[in-house]
Design a protein that fits this description.
8-stranded mixed beta sheet; elongated
């Protein structure tokens, strides 16, 4: 989809669409006042609420159609509220068979128009790679937004569109079927995507992982024909060779059966999305690199397929992680924390980051605690937590601070190994999973864990996207990396 900015519509525009607030409806003026009042009279159900849209063919009008779209109230504008305006606009436009609408946005600055356009493009996502029949949904070939300074809007839009492209890539990765996206192909896709950027990519295969002693990653992935991969991404845009990076670590389980602690049939349906943490990190680093952000960041993507075979790891196995700590396997469906443990240890040992965040679709318990609105997050550092909360507010990737209590750590102790991979209690599962991961954080490292299980997948349309994988975390993490002190 092509996005353009102009002071007036081009000849041949399909639809001239005026964006109006509820307040605007009471004081319509200007050259289109008669048309607006006619539409309001003809469609009394139009209230100007966000996403409300009416349009009609008008005899003698120089454009094919004229319409109104609601913006809601004219309250205080934030980046996120402006993006949601764009998302609502796009959601409405998708229902109309038009190719190149012109949207009149009055009272907005040039950079605000760019943000609205960015929200529209975030919503303008579809995943139809495997559909062979045309669907009854429309996505415009191009959209032109009215701007007080088209050049300024275009300049402001460019980095926003690169961020949008990264979010869409993360959604694509999460929506891919597991017979197509598995550890080997996932790693290849990341390598291919980073070509042409200043991102250094290193891929460790199963032989290398075995030699280095990544026993936790190898245990989880050993049952699959598609063997594990650990992908390391490094982007240094600071211009300083010796700068200290921040680290991002992501869970990339491309399909999760639960192993011998097998999931129910219904519980297995969406398990292709169990790699969304790794997808979010890969896309966040892509966003930073394509925007040439002046940051130094390292990403570690732990990729496995948790399957069942005569090679699978079992409950009661004891495995040795990369750190040398031993783990009693009490549930093979608690696999994400195992692969994160090795990836976290590797990135801390190799790169000595000052701060580290891991992100994963880790527990159903987070979903029970927070519903489908918030990701759970835990941290060992108050200032880091505040930084993440600010990035959450700014980007709309919602997170909620959860407790790291010593009691959660105590229930991870094992009688036969250094620790268990699940707690001795069934309660507080997201909290005890975080306590497990904390055992793999080195002294002095500021760390946060994000359990994104509640928000990785949307069951219905929302302001900035359709049903399906959300791309959660891409903007949250890239914003945090750019703004952390």
């Amino acid at each position: 989809m092509k996005i353009a900015f102009a002071a007036k519509p081009a000849n041949g525009t399909d639809l001239y669409l005026m964006a109006v607030t509820r307040e605007d409806l009471k004081k319509i003026k200007g050259p289109h006042a008669d048309w607006v009042n006619m539409l309001i009279d003809a469609f009394p159900e139009f209230t100007g609420d966000p996403g409300d849209i009416v349009s009609t063919v008008l005899p003698g009008y120089k454009y094919s159609r004229f319409g109104l779209v609601g913006l809601g109230s004219g309250d205080k504008r934030t980046r996120l509220s402006l993006e949601k305006i764009g998302g609502k606009l796009m959601s409405s436009l998708i229902t109309l068979p038009v190719n190149d609408p012109y949207i009149e946005l009055n009272g907005f600055k040039a950079d605000e128009v760019a943000v609205i356009a960015s929200g529209a493009t975030l919503r303008a996502y579809e995943f139809r790679a495997y559909m062979t029949k045309k669907q009854d949904q429309y996505l415009s070939d191009s959209i032109t937004f009215k701007s007080p300074s088209p050049a300024a809007s275009g300049k402001a839009f460019t980095p926003l569109d690169k961020s949008r492209a990264a979010v869409h890539w993360a959604r694509d990765l999460g929506n891919e079927p597991p017979n197509i996206l598995h550890p080997v192909s996932f790693a290849k896709r990341v390598v291919a995507k980073m070509k042409g950027t200043n991102v250094k990519v290193t891929v460790f295969d199963e032989k290398q992982l075995t030699r280095m002693g990544a026993g936790a990653i190898m245990a989880v992935g050993q049952a699959s024909e598609q063997q594990p991969r650990l992908v390391i991404l490094e982007y240094n845009g600071t211009g300083k060779r010796n700068s200290v990076p921040v680290a991002l670590v992501g869970k990339g389980v491309t399909f999760d059966t639960g192993g011998y602690s097998i999931k129910t049939a219904d519980g297995m349906v969406d398990m292709k999305t169990d790699m969304c943490g790794a997808g979010a990190i890969a896309a966040a680093i892509l966003s930073l690199a394509t925007r040439k952000a002046k940051v130094h960041v390292v990403g570690a993507l732990a990729m496995v397929e948790n399957m069942i075979s005569d090679e699978a790891y079992r409950p009661s196995d004891i495995i040795t992680s990369l750190s040398g700590q031993t783990i009693e396997v009490t549930n093979t469906d608690a696999e994400g924390r195992l692969i994160l443990a090795d990836a976290m240890w590797y990135v801390q040992t190799k790169y000595k980051p000052k701060k580290m965040i891991d992100i994963a679709t880790l527990t159903g318990a987070a979903l029970v605690a927070l519903g489908e609105e918030y990701a759970a997050f835990y941290t060992n550092d108050v200032s880091l937590g505040r930084e993440l909360e600010q990035s959450s507010v700014d980007t709309g990737d919602k997170i909620w601070h959860m407790p790291l209590d010593p009691a959660f750590n105590a229930v991870m102790d094992s009688g036969v190994a250094d620790m268990r991979n699940t707690a001795t209690t069934r309660w507080g599962g997201s909290c005890t999973a975080a306590a497990f991961l904390q055992r793999y954080v080195k002294d002095g490292v500021k760390w946060a864990h994000i359990d994104m299980a509640p928000v990785a997948f949307a069951r219905g349309e929302y302001a900035l996207g359709p049903a399906g994988t959300t791309g959660f975390g891409v903007r949250l993490l890239s914003d945090w990396v750019e703004n952390t002190k």
